[in-house]
Design brief:
The chain has one domain: UDP-N-acetylmuramoyl-L-alanine:D-glutamate ligase. 31% of the residues lie in helices and 24% in strands. The chain contains nine helices and 14 strands. The chain is globular, with a radius of gyration of 18 Å.
């Protein structure tokens, strides 16, 4: 099934992303610890992450041209995150460093038996964007604008700029934020966490919730990621599913799997693939990510993806 829109051509970048970056401290333990106990960790890794920043790195590693706009702190975590993006080749000319602010961080406890994780995070309020602080002339630089819907008023401004220029708007949303109803009608491809449509609509059945999201907000394509159950998209009255990809060697860490899925899905979209193929690409990139620790550092290259798909 084809997408119901046409991507623009002749843009500076294939995809531009506006949203979160973070520095993750990944702690692997034998099993999730019980309350008021001590557990010796198996491994500790510091990794750059964040929904949108990771998706841009994923697309860059898959051979596309990307740019990221977001805010970093002046602390060591901020310097580490910014340098990681720069080293990956993502354009960072419209990033900002906020003097005195702490970068967003997360402490992620990973159960070694399954790779599933629990996240403890913090974000300095000084990293947030007001509507009039959104980077101007950013959305028009890419064929696709990818958002995570944090700071919705700023996202609305960028999405309107994108729509006016014919840029396709994609979003990865996992929570309800103030101002979100104004943003949702401006999104062309909305693929969220599995919990989001239920929270948004109050409908427990995920398929019925996707239908309701489409009816309320008019997004061209709506969908959700479902972890080990793969991904699901609703378009033109039809549900399209893709199973989760096998993880070589077993799942080591699910952190960033959703970000990796979006990188794979958008890669397919930007290559002219149909919706079914994009879903399978998203699941494949997510599976490859789960074999290693970390978010950006574990994202596959286009050669690894091609090898995986040929298995």
């Amino acid at each position: 099934m084809r997408f119901p829109f046409t991507l623009p051509t002749e843009r500076e970048f294939d995809a531009v992303g506006f949203g979160l970056n973070a520095v993750d401290h990944l702690v692997v333990v034998p099993e999730y610890p019980a309350f008021d106990t001590k557990t010796r960790l198996i491994e500790h890794t510091q990794s750059a992450g964040g929904q949108t920043a990771s998706a841009m790195v994923g697309l860059q590693r898959l051979g596309l041209r990307t740019a990221y706009a977001g805010r970093f702190g002046t602390d060591s975590a901020g310097r580490f995150g910014l340098q990681t993006l720069r080293g990956e080749g993502v354009d960072i000319t419209q990033t900002e460093v906020i003097e005195g602010a702490r970068n967003q961080i997360a402490f992620i406890i990973i159960d070694a038996r399954t790779g599933e994780r629990t996240i403890i995070w913090d974000r300095d309020e000084r990293l947030a964007y007001a509507a009039d602080e959104a980077p101007t002339n950013f959305a028009v630089r890419g064929r696709v604008l990818h958002l995570d819907a944090h700071d919705p008023p700023a996202c609305v401004r960028l999405a309107r700029e994108a729509r006016a220029a014919g840029t396709i708007v994609s979003a990865d949303i996992d929570n309800i934020y103030a101002g979100l109803p104004e943003l949702l009608p401006l999104i062309d491809v909305l693929i969220s966490s599995c919990e989001f449509p239920v929270r948004l609509t109050g409908i427990a059945d995920e398929r019925a919730a996707l239908v309701e999201v489409k009816a309320r907000y008019g997004c061209a394509v709506t969908g959700l990621t479902r972890g080990i159950r793969g991904a699901l998209v609703y378009h033109e009255g039809v549900f399209i599913e893709a199973p989760a990809g096998p993880v070589p060697g077993g799942c080591r860490d699910t952190t960033g799997a959703g970000d990796a899925f979006h990188a794979g899905f958008l890669y397919g979209l930007l290559q002219g693939a149909e919706i079914e193929a994009c879903l399978h690409l998203g699941c494949a990139v997510a599976a490859l990510k789960c074999r290693s620790l970390g978010a950006r550092t574990a994202l596959p290259s286009v050669h690894e993806l091609a090898e995986f798909l040929s298995l």
